């Protein structure tokens, strides 16, 4: 994976998030015990006291794979 591929993958995530105000994305972390990268986007808009926040998570065998998976899930969520 090149730095350019990583940049494009992050750009795809941020492009999808541009259309989802109030959402934030966390860091991409590697979980060595399962050899997967993990990434989540969370809706931070205010909710009622008992309401749960919506979160979308993605995993991949590479950092870029997890980023691309999250971008695809965000696009699908936005299209609903």
In terms of topology, how is this protein built?
Layout: H1 3-18, E1 23-25, E2 29-31, E3 36-43, E4 55-60, H2 63-79
Antiparallel strand pairs: 1-3, 2-3, 3-4
Helix pairs in contact: 1-2
List the defining traits of the structure above.
Double Stranded RNA Binding Domain, four-stranded antiparallel beta sheet, alpha+beta, 80 residues
Assign the CATH architecture: 2-Layer Sandwich
The CATH topology label is Double Stranded RNA Binding Domain
- Count of strand segments: 4
Helix content: 40-55%
Given the C-alpha coordinates, what overall shape results?
Answer: globular
The residue-averaged pLDDT reads 93
Taking the sheet with the most strands, its summary is: 4 strands, antiparallel
Distance between the termini: 32 Å
Q: Tell me the β content.
A: 25-35%
Q: Assign the CATH class.
A: Alpha Beta
| Helix/strand order, N-terminal first | HEEEEH
How many domains, as an integer? 1
